[in-house]
Amino acid sequence: MVKSTSVQVFLVITVISFLGLLVLHQSLNFGAFSKASKFIRKSVLAEQSSEEVPDGISEFRQSTDDPIDFQEKTEEALPSNRPRLPKALIIGFSKCGTTALRTFLTLHPDIVSPIEEVRYFNFNYTKGLEWYRRQMPPSTENQITIEKTPSYIMSPIVLQRIYLYDSQVKLIIIIRDPIIRLQSQYAHTYRNAPAGAHKPDFKIWVRGDSSDNRITHFVGYTKYIRQVYDQFPKDQILVLAEEDFEQNPLSVMKEVELFLNLKPAFSKDMFYYNKGKGFYCFNRENEFFPTVLKMVKVNNRTGCLGEDKGRDHPDIDDDFLKELVQFIRPHNEQLFRLIGKRIVWENFE
């Protein structure tokens, strides 16, 4: 009886041992099979990826144990002629010739510029830098992109955003006789008014109301330029006079050329004086004229800017002119002290 029981116990132990060995064997085989499956799957995917990725990019799929410079590889993969972020901005002022300035600057072979005001730093900031970049025309690494939005100068928040974007960006500001600027703004405001439609008298429009005094707004160059000086070094800021640009565009173009550290390229045969318009236009015979047509809006027949430039200004009676001069002159003196140069304006001689 005892012997029979011993045999039964032995058989049970033997069966259990056998089952244990069987389970262990299956586990080992499954692990090996799993590893093999993963290896085969990786090999297939790698082969597929190698077939789908264009030449010159497959090196991105190296082992992470072998560090690579992703920025360098990305630069190599990008085309040489592509949109680039601006290195210079025309930030002010409205009705001071910013469009003409930007347009003439595109005659330089090393300058590109979008036709429209992008208004990224004030109205489109939430769209991000990549959106901003896509608004720029293609350029090579040897060219500089210039963007013009004259309202940038009006906001200290916008100036802070520009500084965060690029603390070394070059800034161009153009100013003009404040009284002529007022006249220009009035003409612009009522440019689309139907013939015979009622328009307020210039004097009434200028004075505005207690919350909207246009004299204060349009003569306050000092306040806004000081904000720029507070944010950026003065050697990154160029202040131009519209009158200088209007009378001698070549001299102003060369000044900008030097400020941007560009090779000399502007010449007097790029412009001609249009007596009918009363200002300088593009010389259509110049070799650079066809290339700038993609970046400017000009009359192909005359080479001049659009009809919206050079509008007739409203007349000012003598008494009101004297009143304006008396009020504005102290503002001009503050401005000249700030920028370190005196500008001769016809209304203040």
Automatic annotation (TrEMBL):
Query: Which branch of life, at top level?
Result: Eukaryota
The residues that the entry says bind 3'-phosphoadenylyl sulfate are: 176, 184, 280, 309-313
Question: In its keyword annotation, does this UniProt entry include Glycoprotein?
Answer: yes
Keywords, alphabetical:
Disulfide bond, Glycoprotein, Transferase
The name under which this protein is listed is Sulfotransferase domain-containing protein
The SS bond pairs are 281-304
Q: Which InterPro entries does the entry link to?
A: NST/OST, P-loop_NTPase, Sulfotransferase_dom
- List GO molecular-function terms, semicolon-separated: [heparan sulfate]-glucosamine 3-sulfotransferase activity
Annotated source species: Elysia crispata
> Residue limits of the Sulfotransferase domain?
86-327
Q: Does the keyword Plastid apply?
A: no
